[in-house]
# Entry
Amino acid sequence: MRLIFVGPPGAGKGTQAKVICDKYGIPQVSTGDMLRAAKKEGRLPAELIQKMDAGGLVPDEVVIDLIRRRIEEPDAVSGFLLDGFPRTVPQAEALGELLASKGQRLNGVIALTVDKNLLMERAVLRRTDKRTGQIYHLKYKPPPPDADLEHRADDHEDKVRNRIDVYERMTADLLPFYEKAGMLERVDGVGEVAEVTQRVLAAIEKRK
Ligand code: AP5
# Structure
C-alpha cells in the first residue's frame, strides 16, 4: 500500500496517518516530523529552521532528497504513507519519477478537507508529547497530566495563518494534478476522529 495524505495545516493528517499505518503495517513518512527531528538534533541549517518556524516551505530539493533516502529503507520497501509530501507539483513529479524508477506505483492520494475557521483552532491548541510523539488537543483531546508537552514553534496564530496561506498558494495545486491522474479521493475531515477514520478507510478500500 502506497498512499499520500494531503491537506491544510491542522486537517488531521498526522492523527489519521497513525491509525492507518497501524492498521496496514506501513511506516508513516512525515517530512514535517523528519525536519523537526533534524532541527532538534542540530542537523538543520539555520535558514531552513527560519523558513519552517515562519510557516513557509523548505526548498523542494531538500524534501525530495529526504524522501528518496527514506523510502529506500527496508521498512518502506513494500509500502508507506506519505504525510505532508508532496506539497508542490515539482515534488509530486519527482516522486512519480522515483517510484517509476523502482517499478512501484501509488495506490491513491487522500485529501482531507476541513473548513478554514476550524483549522486555526485545531493547530493553535495542538500539543505533542515529546516522549511518545502522541498528538493531543487542549479542547478535543486533552493530554494526561503526566504528558511532557510541546507547543510547535509554527503553531502560533500568525504562523498558522501563514501556513494556511502557503497551502492555498502552493499545495492546493496538487489536487487538480492528482485528480487529472485519477488518483484523488477527497475525504471530509470534520467530525469525531473515529468518524473521519471510517471515511478514510472507505476511501482507501476503493484504491486497493
Ligand atoms: P507538517 O508537520 O507536515 O505540518 P502541516 O502540514 O502544516 O500539518 P500539521 O502537522 O499542522 O497538521 P495535521 O494535518 O497533521 O494535523 P494533526 O493530525 O496534527 O509541516 C511542518 C513544516 O515543515 C511546513 O510548514 C514546512 O515548513 C515543512 N515541510 C514539511 N513538509 C514539507 C514539504 N513536503 N515541502 C516543503 N516544506 C515542508 O491535527 C491537528 C490538531 O487537531 C491536533 O491537536 C489533533 O488532536 C486535532 N484533531 C485532529 N483531527 C481532529 C478531529 N477530527 N476533531 C477534532 N480535533 C482533531
Remarks:
- Residues 157-171 form the longest helix (15 residues).
- The chain has a mean pLDDT of 96.
- The radius of gyration is 16 Å.
